[in-house]
Amino acid sequence: MKTKINVNGTMKTFEVKPDEYLLDTLKNSGYVSVRRGCDTTSCGVCTVLLDGNPIASCSYLSCRADEHSVTTVEGIPEDAALIADFFGHEGADQCGYCNPSMALTLYAMKRELKNPSDDEIRTYLVGNLCRCSGYVAQHRAIRAYLEVE
Amino acid sequence: MKYVNKIRPSVDGKGLMMGKPGYTDDLADINSLIVKVLRSPYPYAKILKINKEKAEKLDGVECVLTHKDFKRIPMTRAGQGYPEPSPHDKFILDDHVRHIGDEVAAVAAADNETADKALALLEVEYEVLEPVLNYENAYENKIIIHPEPEIHEMFPIGFEPKKNVAAAYMMNVGDVSKTLKECDVVIEESFYTQAQAHVMMEPHTANARIDFQGRLVIYSSTQTPFHVRRILSQTMEYPLSKIRVIKPRIGGGYGGKQCLHGEFLVAAVTLRTGKPSKIVYTRKEVFESTFSRHPMRFDIKLGAMKDGTLKGIDVEVLSDTGAYGEHALTVFMVAGSKVFPLYNKVDSVRFGGKVVYTNHTPAGAFRGYGAIQGNYALESAVDMLCEKLGIDPIEFRNKNMIKEGETSPIFAIMGEGTEGTAMNMESCKLEYCVKRGTELIGWNEKYPKKVMADGKIRSVGMAIAMQGSGIPYIDMGSAMIKLNDDGFFNLMVGATELGQGSDTILGQIAAESLGVDPDKVIIYSSDSDLTPFDTGAYASSTTYVSGNAVKRTADKMREMIIEEGAKALGTPVSETDFDGSSIKSNGKKITLSELSNRLYYSEDQKQLVAVESYVGTKSPPPFMAGFVEIEVDPGTGKIELIDYAAVVDCGTTINPALARVQVEGGLVQGIGMAIYEDVVYSSSGGLITNNMMNYRIPTRKEITNMHVEFADSFEPSGPYGAKSVGEIGIDTPPAAIANALYNAVGVRIQELPITPEKVLMGIIKQKDKE
Amino acid sequence: MKIDSYLKAESIEEAYKVLKENKDAVIIAGGAWLKLMPKTIGIAIDLKNLGLDEIIETDNEVVLGCMSTLRQIEKCKPLQELYDGIVSLSASSIMGITVRNIATIGGTIAGKYGFSDILPVLMAVDAELNFYKRGRVKLSEFMEEKRFAEDILTHIYIKKATSRGWFETMKNTAIDFPILNSAITKSSEGFRIVIGSRPYKAVKALKSMEFINDCKAPGADEIAQAADIAVDEIKFGKNQRGSEEYRKELCRTFVKRGLMAVIS
């Protein structure tokens, strides 16, 4: 069946199966930055923005995304570059596998939360796991990113 | 120093953050056949019959492989130097399966759906055998897990498969029984550490293709590309010269990718079909069918005099290597060799035991590699000894721990699989680390505990640790630098970047030696055709071993530049120098850019290439002191981490930001092992924790404060004074937290993880006693 | 989990008709947990675009559409205030926002999940449900029912009452399933004590409620007694996350703390 999704500002039509998940539809269309980490909605590495909201693309049926907009990290190049600078300064990027999903979630968080406390930041991001960095370096980088107008 | 000990963003972070393809599956040929594996539903069984006819006939299926399709050549999947210190006890596909998740057969099909259908069409008849599911019952059990006649060790490692022993080891300094008899105070305790899963975000994956030269090209998410190439060649009897292994970016390893995984099957499929193929492990396969940390039991005796002098250490260890013996001996030895030298002034030490087979998921390499297990047992036991002695735990450590200039007899005796290397601690700032950590955590104000207004209890605990920097006389790293026109360099290294930043820091080392900005050094790593050899990212070898190789190579290139520059200027080499941008002598100068263009196009044309290698003659340990402040809820047993202070001596930090995150990341993995993580089996031998819903790693809500600092230290044998830093961060949390918990509520947990249930039930049991 | 076909219902009548006429039809809610179901779904009926994802505040109630997400509930201002904010708080403690932006309250309730953090709270605030055919029924009644005839949950009603509330959940890591949780409220109608994730689904501690509701001015002793009664009357089990004994002790702690909090 056909599903029409606005991906990163471009209207696209995908031929999908009823039980196909957004993660696979995007990956099979060449969006390598959307990754599979766990199969059980537990890791956050597959995060994309649906109408600006972070969702686990591994658990969202593609046909439900019909007439919605989806953003992958390719759709937020300026913020991704900025976040990369702050992560790079802290050494927080490490293996990089979780980074695109982090960038998307941070992008959404910056627009959703005004002046978040440390705890609010951690709570917003809690579903985005990272096994390399130990989180605190990412937190330092996130604080710096939030300061930028 | 201009470029070393400087924060620089990693060379690849931005590209990867912005979504550029770089990982193994990103680079798979788009026409790859999908390889999927039928895995054993039983912990131990014999395969009586496999009928693959129906699967083979399915439209879209190109290849179905069973044990009958392979010559029976035993190998080890462990990514280690040759000859490997791990038993050759596995076959690519075998007629026995030894753990739930073990490979039974493989299919290659045009797409995922067809591959799944093909797996379902395979008809397998098993003879289900009784498994060994408890490593404390494995030794000399009547059930033998590896009766096959072909398996063998490569050199004596204590391999006795008829007794279910994969490896065994024993060492002795002095007469520990005699020493303990003469001690004023002796404690005797047992500790259990659990299996831990790596949970790297990128599941294991590999792909294969035949290139236009008819060579087999493997892309793999591996920490040891050269070992992959060799083991593939030997096991499949395929010429080494016809195999190329490329390691792209890796989404996390921590030792979990220091073993071969899917490479055999994609190689076999591609060689048979001529078509590219790929395998991507599901998370379930990562948990069940790759590797996890060796669970261990430590029976430890410590003896001391009334004045607090530690006199004797006697440790017996039992380790569970699961169904296959990868890393069995070496992890076992590190549990001793990178732990007990911490207390180097004892009269006698004894360390020994066995590594047994069970029908569990195989154990393998995991950051810390035995040291974290040994550290938990020793540093917990030391606190228990201090209590019996009535001596402050910090005072005890200051009195007994190893200091700069000293040595331990253990270094000479215990290597990693073989004999060790004697060495003095030319850099050891453990004293400073302990002192500074005490300040950072506020030990004097907080020790031992404080009851808060809401009834919760805050306390502090600590532990010291050491690790190593590569394996002396075994780990070799090398580097190649070539000068291009316009005066920039390519740096080719075998060293494996797996996210720890090795590409970046090796570039910084080269830049420092050459005197040029790191932007002028373009690094490419881990391609068995294009980069020189490196053993791989393990044993904390990259900064020290590969770093020294890079420094030597860059120093050599510098000499070559001066030599060619002197020729171009017509000046004597002894009066010519290179300042990073120009070669100068007595008022004459030529820029590097001009010289390089001349060397390519105008005069004395030649390609300048420098290549050097390095093998360590010692393994200078990084050290650290870890201090934790916790808050215990006596109503639920929950432990909240208030702060963790870690002071590390790793010599010079090549890149302070990257070094810091290596420690922070290691700490959180150690905290995970201490409190949150457990590999749990059902009574029938299947993993309950075979997905990330049931296996939980720390989230960012659990980790709030961490203070990591580095001691001002310099290791003369390391590149610009550096030692390695990849593993040391993980070692202290289990003991530090166990010690803090005891200080808080008087409950001593001797079996990891320290769960809230164990804490609460311990508190209640204590109250009942009173 | 396989789905043979997908239908975006144009109306609730259509959804009900298809559901009733096809044995293999299933209403999919957010779909967050679908792939963990082993079966094949013949027709997946989606209630998207029927306006059931709205949260409406009236004079006496907050009305949640069945398709409103846990994230919407978490951010809902009135729910951040009512009952000391425990409805919003319990929603916010469930996994991460990438799941809460998908998971719906309808899916949570229909699943009667033992591991739910929000179900005990909804029981403690005496929430009511509306089914398309059946009409209104109390959540606590629905939770006890064994049979579930084909019907469609459309709305959830939360009374606006002056009431104290307390919610506590014990987890390994922040996004894990609870080992045990508890919701306690005190309103003009008295105390309500609900224990969930036992690991079984949430239940009211009726005997404990009876006891504490009879006490004139409950102090520390009465509260401790109420906690002991709750521990004795409720059935706990063991699983990978915890033993029966541990859950009992957690229950004891939660009931004590919860009652203290709502009384103060």
Structure description:
The complex is a heterotrimer of chains A (149), B (770) and C (264). With 149 residues, chain A is an alpha+beta fold. Chain A folds into 2 domains: 2-74, Roll (Ubiquitin-like (UB roll)); 76-147, DNA polymerase, domain 1. Helices cover 37% and strands 16% of the residues of chain A. Chain A is built from 5 helices and 5 strands. The longest helix of chain A has 14 residues, at 77-90. The termini of chain A are far apart. Chain B is an alpha+beta fold. In chain B, strand 25 and strand 26 form a beta hairpin. Chain B is globular, with a radius of gyration of 27 Å. The model of chain B has no long low-confidence stretch (mean pLDDT 97). Chain C is an alpha+beta fold. Helices cover 36% and strands 26% of the residues of chain C. Chain C is globular and about 60 Å long. Chain C starts with a strand and ends with a helix. The chains are: A alpha+beta (149), B alpha+beta (770), C alpha+beta (264). Chains in contact: A-B, A-C, B-C.
Short structural description:
The complex is a heterotrimer of chains A (149), B (770) and C (264). Chain B contains 19 helices and 27 strands.
Low-pLDDT parts of chain B are: none
Average pLDDT across residues of chain B?
97
- Number of helical segments with 4 or more residues of chain A: 5
Helicity range of the residues of chain B? Answer: 25-40%
Let me know the CATH homologous superfamily of the largest domain in chain A.
Beta-grasp domain
* Strand residue percentage of chain A: 15-25%
Annotated CATH homologous superfamily of the largest domain in chain B? Aldehyde oxidase/xanthine dehydrogenase, molybdopterin binding domain
- Element-level helix/strand string of chain A: EEHEEEHHHH
* Largest inter-chain contact set: A-B, 52 and 58 residues
Q: Sheet bearing the most strands of chain A, described?
A: 5 strands, mixed
**Helix fraction of chain A by DSSP (H/I, runs of at least 4):** 25-40%
Total individual domains of chain A: 2
